[in-house]
Write a structure and sequence with these properties.
The protein is an alpha+beta fold and 410 residues long. It has helices at residues 14-23, 57-65, 70-73, 111-124, 173-177, 234-242, 245-256, 304-321, 329-356, 364-376, 378-388, and strands spanning 3-10, 30-33, 52-55, 77-79, 81-86, 92-96, 106-110, 128-131, 135-142, 145-152, 155-166, 182-198, 205-210, 216-220, 225-233, 263-266, 270-279, 283-284, 287-289, 295-296. It has 11 helices and 20 strands. Strands 5, 6, 12, 13, 14, 15, 16, 17 and 20 form a 9-stranded mixed β-sheet that branches. The protein is globular, with a radius of gyration of 21 Å. Bound molecules: flavin-adenine dinucleotide.
Length: 410
């Protein structure tokens, strides 16, 4: 017999899982369908080999409101300063948390720690069921919702819901099943990601360094580590994936002009091909796309997860404030609330890649003057920092520290 629920969340990655936590307390029956097996909590911490995410302050606030921050706090490294520069250029922009009276410009946390916190919290969430090793593979529209076919090792079964949320990543099958198209721009670049153990303290300093080959970011981590994200054309990524630790260290040193001091060890290296994916719409009949399924960004500004968390906060609030699931009108309202933020972040991240890339329309001396000018212009710099931190008018309740409950008024 087909099980029925209120909301089906397809994809229990960092965004789908966060949405399920955000819906707790709204009196809804929520089922999260996740293709991957349940995480093995007995896995040892891989100190130098883990991927990280830079959390904007607004994301940190949302996590705090969802009671997810306490287990993360001691494992999250505050970003206290950001240094933005161009290799070979004279100009640089420096952002400083203390100067703007902020505790931090952001926080760097490992995806392992974030994933563990989410999965522990999910297991305590009232009204949320998580189905692991289960994929959504078919969809049928009903008068008052959808029926999805689930594929498991034991065979197929169906699940009915009043709303399907597609949180199943960049290659979202559910986006397609909902009839929502997507545009895709391949950057022809991949991100090489690894962590470095530093001898001298990093002081909470993050670097964003632009080179004609692609940007490089270095983020401070707990335990004197730093996360390196090097975006390069694929053949070069293949080269740096295969080279010795010594050669990689020498390259990082060269790119940062020796600013890091001695690098004692290099963690395992991984790479991700990079593309910009944008859903043509955010909603369909009884369906919404969120997170990477709605927008997959270049990681240059570290904003993909942060943007997805604002999807989560706005979607949960829209569902709480309206008798949302009863009518279709709220879907347009959700689109209106999210469009500008999506457009801004796509333009910001894609624009940075184009502006500082090999075929930049702006001559190098002008770019340097721009970075220097931004550094000297207090209001301009504050505006830039606020955009990167996700701050702005009209923040959703969860980002203002206000919990949601059934019938919440904003
Ligand atoms: C190198 C790199 C660095 C980054 N750094 C940052 C950063 O510093 N800050 C930041 O904000 N963002 C960053 N990002 C972006 C961030 O990682 C993503 O935006 C975020 O992880 C997206 O999460 P998601 O849950 O939407 O998608 P995903 O993580 O792709 O999760 C989708 C989930 O859906 C499941 N799934 C897929 N198909 C099905 C199906 N048919 N049925 C059921 N389940 C399914 C998958 O198993 C998966 O768990 C970075 C990205 C990269 C590549």
């Amino acid at each position: 017999m087909s099980r029925s629920c209120d909301i089906i969340i397809a994809g229990g990655g960092m965004i789908g899982a966060s949405l399920a936590c955000a819906l707790e307390g709204l009196g809804l029956d929520v089922v999260v369908v996740e293709a991957a097996p349940a995480p093995d909590s007995a896995l040892p911490a891989a100190a130098l080999d883990e991927r990280t995410t830079a959390l904007a302050p607004v994301t940190q606030r949302i996590l705090q409101t969802l009671h997810l921050w306490p287990p993360l706090a001691s494992e999250a490294e505050p970003i206290r300063h950001i240094h933005v520069s161009r290799r070979g250029g004279a100009g640089a922009t420096r952002l400083d948390a203390a100067r703007d009276n902020l505790p931090a410009l952001g926080y760097v946390v490992s995806n392992r720690v974030l994933g563990e916190a989410l999965s522990r919290r999910l297991s305590d969430c009232e009204g949320v069921e998580v189905l692991h090793q289960t994929r959504v593979c078919e969809l049928a529209h009903l008068d008052a919702g959808v029926r999805v076919t689930l594929e498991t090792d034991e065979g197929r079964r169906t699940l009915q819901g009043r709303l399907l949320v597609a949180a199943d990543g960049a290659a979202s099958k559910c986006r397609r099943l909902l009839g929502i198209g997507a545009s895709r721009h391949d950057y022809g670049h991949s991100a090489l990601v690894t962590n470095l153990a530093l001898r001298q303290p990093h002081g909470g300093l993050a670097y964003e360094r632009f080179t004609p080959d692609g940007p490089m970011a270095l983020l401070p981590m707990t335990g004197g580590r730093a996360a390196l994200v090097l975006t390069l054309p694929q053949p070069e990524v293949d080269h740096w994936l295969a080279c010795s630790d010594e050669a990689l260290v020498a390259e990082v040193d060269r790119r940062l002009g020796g600013r890091l001091g001695e690098i004692e060890a290099v963690g395992a290296r991984q790479s991700w091909p990079l593309s910009l994916v944008r859903a043509s719409r955010l909603t369909a009949d009884h369906g919404v796309v969120v997170g990477n399924a709605a927008h997959t960004l270049h990681p240059v500004a570290g904003q993909g997860f942060n943007l997805g968390m604002r999807d989560v906060a706005v979607l949960a609030e829209t569902i709480a404030t309206t008798s949302a699931l009863e009518s279709g009108n709220w879907l347009d309202a959700y689109t209106r609330l999210r469009q500008a933020d999506h457009q801004r972040l796509v333009s910001f991240s894609h624009g940075l890649v184009q502006l500082f890339g090999r075929h930049s329309p702006v001559p190098a001396p002008l770019l340097d003057a721009g970075l220097l000018g931004l550094d000297l212009c207090g209001p301009g710099k504050r505006g830039f920092a606020r955009a990167a931190m996700g701050l702005g008018p009209g923040l959703p309740r969860l980002a203002r520290g206000l919990p949601l409950h059934k019938g919440t008024m904003s």
